[in-house]
Design brief:
Elements: H1 5-50, E1 57-59, E2 62-64, H2 85-94, H3 101-107, H4 112-119, H5 126-136, H6 141-148, E3 154-158, H7 161-173, E4 178-183, H8 199-210, E5 215-220, H9 225-237, E6 243-248, E7 259-263, E8 267-271, E9 285-289, H10 291-305, E10 308-310, H11 316-328, H12 334-337, H13 341-353
Parallel strand pairs: 4-5, 5-6
Antiparallel strand pairs: 1-2, 3-9, 4-7, 6-10, 7-8, 8-9
Helix pairs in contact: 2-6, 3-4, 6-7, 7-8, 9-11, 9-13
């Protein structure tokens, strides 16, 4: 390299070095601005959280404030149960041990490929429900869950006792061996026997009790004559080992509780407000699936039992005298107030003559 070319080379090298240096400085400044922005935002957020003021929490009767900088615990949202279609279909198939997937699909009116896709979690279409649910003996997917999903702990709420209870009870009673039920603190309403309310439920349970296929244990309070006639007919008809009725003598102790039914110690039904001016339309009821719920209502049932007297196992004359004495307390009802044992026996005999048309409620 000549002496003339040397300065030009040095100038070019210096320019490249200066450009590289300025670029590095610019990158460093850009990074600094970004870090400053993030730090400022984080610091502001922390300050805001540290000044959070909440309602005091109570523990063992003493006020306990949440630690500074921590949000108070949020209330747990209630679980929302979605019917498990694969489990429902699998249980339906398992209750028929000889069924293959193809047999189960045919029994439900579905194609084999559609049945397998529903087992794999494909959405259960409205058309598929219209085909399959009647074959399962239910009207809705919620009722199918009651009948075929006894594994998932949950609460299901139904909106109309009058319209929905028959199918819901039948679904839950399917395969049940024992039920415990209360029938107390109900307002007087016109006899639902005349309306033939829930005929399939009545007929199914009447036939199962006659066959000794189920055990029913009841705590009763008589608030109308029609129900008393039902119960007396049942006591005289069914084996007392399968139909056990106890008369509640002090109904005031059960005021906080709704009507309820415990099924096989693993599920329960609760609800049943009855209007005094007619049949119980639009009253909600709840179904609890899970032993923890059933255990709660079983404990309540056992507590109520302490305030009852036996009806099913005593002599007929004593039973009739006890029932008449209870009905005579309904002074606002002339028919009950003036009722005699002989008149009650005639009413029970008359009802027995139409039992095929109007089966009694269990």
């Amino acid at each position: 390299m000549s002496n003339e070319e040397f300065p030009r080379c040095c100038d070019a090298t210096a320019k490249k070095s200066r450009f590289k240096y300025l670029t590095q400085i610019a990158n460093i400044r850009d990074c600094y601005e970004r870090i400053k922005h993030v730090t400022f935002a984080t610091t502001t957020k922390r300050r805001a959280e540290s000044t959070f003021v909440s309602e005091p929490m109570v523990s063992n009767g003493k006020q306990r404030l949440p630690k500074e900088g921590k949000s108070p615990p949020q209330p747990r949202q209630p679980d929302t149960y979605v019917p498990n279609v694969p489990l429902i279909l699998t249980t339906f198939k398992e209750r028929n041990p000889r069924y293959t997937d193809e047999d189960a699909a045919a029994a439900l009116g579905l194609s084999a490929s559609a049945f397998k896709s529903y087992l794999q979690g494909k959405p259960f279409t409205k058309r598929a429900q219209e085909l399959a649910l009647p074959k399962m003996g239910v009207a809705t997917l919620a009722e199918a869950a009651l009948k075929f999903d006894r594994q998932t702990d949950r609460i299901q709420i139904f909106d109309d006792l009058f319209k929905q209870s028959q199918d819901a009870f039948l679904a839950l009673f399917d395969g049940a061996r024992e039920i415990k039920e209360t029938h107390v603190m109900l307002s007087v309403y016109p006899s639902l026997e005349r309306l033939n309310h829930r005929p399939r439920l009545k007929r199914t349970m009447y036939d199962r009790l006659r066959a000794g296929d189920i055990v029913v244990r009841r705590i009763e309070q008589f608030n109308n004559l029609d129900r008393a006639v039902d119960v007396i007919h049942n006591i005289l008809t069914f084996n007392p080992n399968h139909y056990d009725v106890r008369l509640l003598r002090n109904a005031s102790i059960v005021f906080p509780y709704l009507q309820f039914t415990v099924v096989d110690g693993n599920s329960a039904i609760s609800g049943g407000f009855h209007a005094s001016d007619g049949a119980p339309h639009h009253d909600p009821f709840m179904v609890y699936v899970g032993t923890r719920y059933a255990n709660f209502y079983t404990k309540v049932w056992e507590k109520l039992k302490r305030y009852t007297c036996e009806l099913s196992t005593i002599r007929e004359s004593e039973m009739l005298a006890l029932v008449v004495a209870e009905l005579n307390k309904l002074t606002d009802n002339e028919q009950c107030r003036d009722l005699t044992v002989s008149a009650l026996k005639k009413l029970v005999a008359a009802h027995a003559e139409v039992i095929d048309e109007f089966p009694t409620r269990y």
